[in-house]
Amino acid sequence: MDDILGAGIRFTVLFYNPNIHPKAEYTLRKEENIRYAQKLGVDFIDLDYDKDRWFERVRGLEWEPERGARCTACFDMRFERSALFAVEHGFTVFTSTLGISRWKDMNQINACGHRAAQRYPNLHYWDYNWRKQGGSQRMIEIAKAEQFYQQEYCGCVYSLRDSNRHRLAQGRGKIVRGVKFYGRES
């Protein structure tokens, strides 16, 4: 965010993540975002935690793999709400930092963003590649410097289930949520 501010781009952080499970995980991730936005003097908008609507949206996709149809449905829901908020509040451009994660498919994310933007005239989805020019490394550097919470799964209950199954198959323990932070001893 500091690089964007340095370029003179004024923006607002919109937090809409009804997929994150459980609520304590959602709250922790949201509070980390608020803390950093406040530090940088960036506006922060928190939309509803409408997890029931999210579960309705992904019903029948519970066993889809990461990067599959469930993720597309999840991204579509979140981008549709973000696009609506943008239009309702006079924004003409919106984007997402979801693509900075190497675990995500940027083409999948960007397709969802463009689909949502196409619903409204004069709204553009900026499909910037946040990974390029050392963006992923910069994210890790900021996370360590800020001692951000280290997320070990995407966020949804199915991602947690599948991540734990994978870890157990490797002889590792299940994810212990809320305890691992960058730059801190666990």
Automatic annotation (TrEMBL):
Protein name: Epoxyqueuosine reductase QueH
EC id: 1.17.99.6
One Pfam assignment: QueH
Keywords of this entry: 4Fe-4S, Disulfide bond, Hydrolase, Iron, Iron-sulfur, Metal-binding, Oxidoreductase, Queuosine biosynthesis, Redox-active center, tRNA processing
Function: Catalyzes the conversion of epoxyqueuosine (oQ) to queuosine (Q), which is a hypermodified base found in the wobble positions of tRNA(Asp), tRNA(Asn), tRNA(His) and tRNA(Tyr).
BP GO terms, sorted: tRNA queuosine(34) biosynthetic process
Family indicated by similarity: Belongs to the QueH family.
Pathway(s) of this molecule: tRNA modification; tRNA-queuosine biosynthesis
Superkingdom to which the source organism belongs: Bacteria
GO MF annotations, alphabetized: 4 iron, 4 sulfur cluster binding; epoxyqueuosine reductase activity; hydrolase activity; metal ion binding
Record has tRNA processing as a keyword: yes
Reactions catalysed: epoxyqueuosine(34) in tRNA + AH2 = queuosine(34) in tRNA + A + H2O
PANTHER family assigned to the protein according to its UniProt record, in alphabetical order: EPOXYQUEUOSINE REDUCTASE QUEH
Species per Swiss-Prot/TrEMBL record: Acidithiobacillus caldus (strain ATCC 51756 / DSM 8584 / KU)
First-level EC class: oxidoreductase
